Amino acid sequence: MAPGEARQTWESERYARNARFVADLGEPLIALLAPRPGERILDLGCGDGALTEKLAASGASIVGVDAGPDMIEAARRRGLDARVADGRALAFDHEFDAAFSNAALHWMNDPDAVIRGVARALKPGGRFIGEMGGHGNIAAICVALVTVLGRRGIDGLAALPWYYPSPAEYRERLECGGFAVDYIELIPRPTPLPTGMAAWLETFGETLLRLVPADDRIAARDEVVETLRPFLCDTAGQWTADYVRLRFTAHLA
Question: Could you give the count of Cα atoms lying within 13 Å of 227 in the half-sphere of its Cβ?
Fold first, then answer.
C-alpha cells in the first residue's frame, strides 16, 4: 500500500479479504482532518481507496497515491483520482490544502524524504494528519518472525521492513521538516484479525517470508503462527494483533 516500498507485493483482492479493518479503523482520522468542500487533499498511501472514498464524500478534491499498481487500479475502479507514486519522491508542488495518511508511513524507509515531499506538496500553512505504526507496534509478531527466521540462518531483525517511531522521534522529524506539531501520541490498539494470523502474515509479512526458500515458506509461516498462538489467540480461536498506533496532526509552520 505504501509509496516507496518496492519489495512488498500489494494485491487488492488479498488486501480486501484480509485487511479491510485497516480502512475501517482509520475512520477517526477523517474527523481529525476535518476535510471541507473545495479543499484539495493528498491521500498518501491510499491503497485500494476504501478510506479515500470516504474522504471524497466530504466534497473535497482528493488525489490518492500509492506504490502498488494493483491497489491503484482498485482505487480507480471506485472513480477516484489515484496515481502510482513513490512516497519518498513526491512530485507535487504547493498544491494541496492538506495531506492525509493512514497505515502507510511505517512502510516508507526514508521518513525524512517523505516529510520533505509532503511539505513541498502543501500550500503555506497546510496541514498533515496521519496515523502509522508506532514504537512497540506488533512487537510480539516481530519477535516471532525474527526468531523463526533466525533458526534458518536469516537475520530477520535486519530485514524488518517497518519503521515504528516514538512520538518524540517523529515530532523531531516533523519539526525538522518544517512542521509545527499540534498533537502526537501513541495509542495502544489491540486489533482483531478477522481472517487469522496466517493470513495477516501472508498479507503484511511477505517481505520476510520470501527470505525463506519456497519449499520451507509455509512451514516457517506456520511456525510463526504457533509461536504466537499462546499470546495472541484466545480460547475461541480469535486472533488479536498487538497494534500500537502513532497518531499526529501538524501544519506547516
Answer: 18
Q: What is residue 78's predicted lDDT score, i.e. its pLDDT?
A: 93
Q: What is the pLDDT of residue 1?
A: 39
> Quick count: other Cβ atoms within 10 Å of Cβ 125?
10
- The pLDDT value recorded for residue 12 is 52
Answer left, alpha or beta for residue 43, where phi above 0 means left and psi between -120 and 50 means alpha.
beta
| Helix, strand, or coil (residue 99) | strand
**Helices 196-204 and 217-232 sit at what angle, rounded to 10 degrees?**
130
Cα–Cα nearest to 133, from 157, 161, 153:
161
Which residues, 6 or more positions from 77, have their beta carbon under 8 angstroms from its beta carbon? none
Q: Please say whether the beta carbons of 25 and 189 come within 8 A.
A: yes
- Cβ atoms within 10 Å of 89's Cβ, excluding its own: 13
CA distance 64 to 187: 25
Query: For residue 18, what pLDDT is reported?
Result: 52
Low-confidence spans in the chain with pLDDT less than 70:
1-26
Segment holding 131, helix H or strand E: strand 122-133
Model confidence, pTM? 0.90
Domains of the chain: 12-252 (3.40.50.150)
Q: How far apart are CA 251 and CA 129, in angstroms?
A: 8
Q: How far apart are CA 185 and CA 210, in angstroms?
A: 33
**Can you tell me the distance from the alpha carbon of 78 to that of 208, in angstroms, rounded to the nearest whole number?**
31
